[in-house]
Fold these 2 entries.
Entry 1:
Amino acid sequence: MNLKAVLILLGLALATIFALVCVLLTRGRAPSTCQHLPPEQEDAEDGQSLVFADLTAEEMSQVVRYLQGNLGVQLVDASRAQPSDNCIASMDLQVPAKAEVLRFLDAGGARPPREALAVLYFGKQAEPNVTEYVVGPLPTPVYHRDVTVHKYGGKVPYHSRPVTGKEYMDINALIQRELKKAPLFLAACCESDGTDLVSLTTAPRGFKSGDRMTWFILFHNVAGTGYFLSPVGLEVLVEHKDLHVSRWQLRQIFYNGRYFASTGDLEQEFVAGVLEVIRLKKLQADAVLGSLRPRRPPGSPGPLQFEPQGPRYSVRDNRITFQGWSIAFGMNPNSGPRLFDIRYRGERIAYELSLQEALTLYGSNCPGGMSTRYLDGSFGIGRFAYELVRGLDCPYTATYVDRHYLAETDTPKTNQNSLCIFEHDSGLPLRRHFSDSPSLYYGGLRKNTLVIRTISTLINYDYIWDFLFHGNGAVEVQVHATGYISSSFLHGQGTDYGNRVGPHTLGTMHLHHIHYKVDLDVDGQLNSLETQDMEYEFVKDPWSTQNTIERPYLRRKRLEKEDEAAFPLNAPMPRYISFASPNPNKWGHPRSYRIQVISFAGKHLPINSSMERSVSWGRYQLAVTRHKEEEPTSTSIYNQNDPWTPTVAFADFINNETITNEDLVAWITVGFLHIPHAEDIPNTVTVGNSVGFFLRPYNYFNEDPSVDSSDSVYFSSEQDARACGANPLACLSSAAACAPHLPPFHFGGFLNL
């Protein structure tokens, strides 16, 4: 080998060694931690949004102390109160009147006094009742006033009060005592002595006003699994109306298609050999239908969303700002998430956007299933919004916020990290175009959205409540359903009401209907409702008169009265419905926001049903009414246990008043029919089980406002798309060459139950 070849080989060897060293050094060097930049500063707000802020734990405690010392009656802590006691049941912010708030926000008026709304059960009175007090001013209250008659037209009957945890405990103790009267039957049917059976409440509780009689469905309980899928065929009817717990009674027993007067009668028929018994084996944790334990070891981590320079949104107290958006957020312990004073580019789009109610109505050939119509606001949509799991319920790097509530105890409780806020990259363009002629260019904008999320666990179901704010000025509201289905014991013609999903389990058909309040203020408070849709007209072809052409044209209409603006559920509705301002945009059209509903709702309860008025909001997919302070909500927590004489009947809101150039409110119902199937085991998935609506600018602007986004991308064939100066996407390799700072995983959601 000559010297030249040796030198060439030596040079190649040195180059290879150098390259390997570089690779090894690069691999060994940890990437730098991402440096967070402060989010873009929005206009100073001076704490104005605190007018909508939820009560603090200290404020709740102050109200409790005030009520204990100023009502002149003994108050027992609700966690141990008997029905014959007086107690504080719950507490929330008393939201000030809209006119008062707007004077403060927009006209330099005085800040409205901060007040609480306290719900008290008075069982130790000659006429037991539920009373609501407004208490203020906070933080140091000195007055209270009874607002019950003003709100509901009279005292709230005691039987309509929501059931407390203590009442459920006393009912369960009664059921356990009664089960002990049928030991042989329980051993045969369920390999149980009754102590490993768990009961599930139904609602409403009877057939007429004054009833308080509830069917409870019994299930096998296996720790760490969803008992909702393991019914044993036994259901019991408990009467618990009397103020004295000792007088509560088991009224009926249902088992495998038959009804019995008592557990004693059930046991007697079993001993006599005339009762058909379905013998169930005691369930094991590894074989139960409802287990969510992983079946495979963890794989490689999936994609991780992070912000290389920190969040681009800001959260201060109860106010969020993001790329022109400003939102005040909160949580009603009963009805759930609520947003106020939603502004885009400094202009108020909506005064209030809030969840009102969630109805779940079941079918079955078992008494518990067929009588169930859950109104979840009565149970506590906001109260049962527990801690979110970082990295699964929300992105790992989201901002997590605590929520405080007071319910069924004199001590405020905190659901830590129960609301999350994050910017979401949908992986989809908000808009884009590739031009292939006559000039060559590309322009687009990523669909990045601000998301406010909370998740409520209401017995078996988990509802994911999302509020999304888009870069084009649109608001999107979504609800996703997951969790466990509820089930009945399969017997007889059970499959007329659902599908078999286990050896003895019937997944019962049901509907989910969700109601929202949307108080839009489009370019001011005074709006009108306009509809637009298409029709075809047949015209002579102008350039060939012997032929005709089918030409679509626009049919516009302004609705004048509330009755015209009440659109029945599942009936055809104009495709474009807008809240219109009297002021035009640059092109002469009214500045408007369009309501676009995405829903697959089931059929509403027949209007001749004795309880239909309590859920009469469900008659309409959209109803528009004039704003009234005496109509703040479409339902009430008392409608669940007395739906036959509802304290709030939404149908009464619609009385054909004029809705032209008025302060208007949209009430929106979304939902879906769910017929459970094998793939709902162990859990219902969110795929395909999401509904909601959009609030979209419609001639509100003179052009799409997202063109002003600093995230916009444009490059032409004459530019080098690889250059960071020409294309911000080319900057990502350096901007994102850092490691996100991930806080240690922590979950304390089991500590506060």
Entry 2:
Amino acid sequence: TSIPRHTNRLITEKSPYLLQHAHNPVDWYPWGQEAFDKAKKENKLIFLSVGYSTCHWCHVMEEESFKNKEIGEIMNKNFVCIKVDREERPDVDKVYMTFVQATSGGGGWPMSVWLTPDLKPFAGGTYFPPEDGVHRVGFRTVLLRIAEQWKENKDALLQNSQKILEALLHVSEIRVQGQESPPPSTEVMATCLQQLSNSYDEDYGGFSKSPKFPTPVNLNFLFTYWALHRTTPEGARALQMALHTLKMMAHGGIHDHIGQGFHRYSTDQHWHVPHFEKMLYDQGQLAATYSRAFQISGDEFFANVVQDILLYVSRDLSDQAGGFYSAEDADSYPTTTSGEKREGAFCVWTAEEIQALLPDTVEGATEGTTLGDVFMHHYGVKETGNVSPAQDPHQELKGKNVLIVRYSPELTAAQFGLELGLLGDLLQEGRQRLSAARAQRPRPHLDTKMLAAWNGLMISGFAQAGVALAEQKYVSRATQAAAFLQRHLFDPASGRLLRSCYRGKENAVEQSAVPIHGFLEDYVFVIQALFDLYEASLEQGWLEWALQLQHMQDKLFWDPKGFAYFSSEAGDASLLLRLKNDQDGAEPAANSVAVTNLLRAACYSGHMEWVEKAGQILAAFSERLQKIPIALPEMARATAVFHHTLKQVVICGDPQGEDTKEMLRCVHSVFSPNKVLMLADGDSAGFLYRQLPFLASLERKEGKATAYLCSNFTCSLPVTSPQELRGMLCP
């Protein structure tokens, strides 16, 4: 390869996204003191550009502007330029995104913001084309205008930035308003169901027309609603909406039928043509959600989707040391000799390719049918391509096909006069051949950064799948990843989590020179993962670590005045605002999951202040929960768990005994959103017996494994048969 002409300070960073910009002619700095000092010393404005490695428009803006030598010169002359990976620094991203959304009415990435030397924002936007167009000002013009303003009207600009900051402080504050109590759970649940129901797509599932996101938080809310209202028409409606959505997503092009796993979202109403990047947080949450769907319905279809997601993650997003990588890009080179990347190139097919790969005549089908005919019919492949031009503004998918299941197996079999059993084998053979052909294509870029928060979501996915599908190998994979977190993303000396680590030379796991400390979401998703892992493995060490992390989270992030947790800790002078996220979106908001974590933590420790804190979070978000709970479906779900009090399911028995295992299988096979499982193994010196004195009074009846259902540490009569236990769990 040729020696790069330019190299900037990003070359010493670990983030794959920052490294992608290390050879731009722009003199990029990472976010940090060196850049801030330079801005102050030279009295220069800061240009802050925030993105992430799987962001399509980030690549476009880099190609057009940041690789342009003249634009680079304008940037270097007038500004101190800082590049941030939003996945490494969600705190920095959130502060300036709050500004961009408030001032321009929209937000997104790449985010472009201009700051005073003391980091206050005064102008911003998202993607800028390099030159002026009919409707948009070009990036070059904006740079020159802002530089001019700073020269001519410095004082006005500084005053204005101070006003903006005060306004932002005011609008972004979330705090308890006088009343100390959580909102009424029944109303919050009913309103949230109503709002989801009103936006539900009866035909294709999902809760918007287009684009359509998987949004697992909506589906988990619906499952919980159903579990608490099983016999009502509303309960049935909630379950039907969730299961139909999951079925349609699994059939759609958002699901990678050849390479497994799910793409980030669909650009159309039918889940057909996606943006092709694959994110770890989606795989983790969807594995858990499809596991619940299987637990509830018993339909193997959902179990197969779980296995599909976990196969993808184990194969393509797993580090040999046990951690999980962040994402795979959407864009890749169509062939080994291509000069430019295309969106979806790794995943799409022409009809000719498929016909050539599947030419075999099918025995037992109507005369002259080839495997290609059957495959193309089932997956909606067309000679001219199956992507409508509306879904393909850049003509990147012209003549190509995104596979989507168009017919039930019964209909496809009937179409070609095939036996149903044979059809399954034929489609599998077709998928395997396409998979082998795809392996010859250049792979999309892999973001090998490993984040504590997203690893937490993925551990929960493996642990819950292990429980619901009774698959020990998934529990083992979750255990391996939790051990990875403890080894690489935790500092035992301070008891604190770290945000990220990286795959370095020789595939070794590396840390940046100045490690980034964990944010609220890292603690919350890791604690949730450890509780899920305890319930799957019954290894008490994970429980002990979870409770230690919960204490640390309280210390670093709790807001004693306004209640709830801040997203970032105090004491970072470069952060202008400490915010609280109030949206359950592609990922749940940290405070939403924290409510359930606190309730679980209290059950395992007897530490009742945690229940009080859970109520205080709900109180802080009370107004939003009552008006627009659809913005916080995970927190709405948590109001119900808070209201119904978690039930402690205690199994007294020998962990190795067959009778104990049978009772555990019974608990694992039931979806119950407000249960907490613990195994009382009789070891009075063990962690749980030390935490919970009431366990000592529970005994095995006639020496058999015995279950108790306890609420607030008072227990039901003992039961020794799985049937009776099931009856108690599903009243």
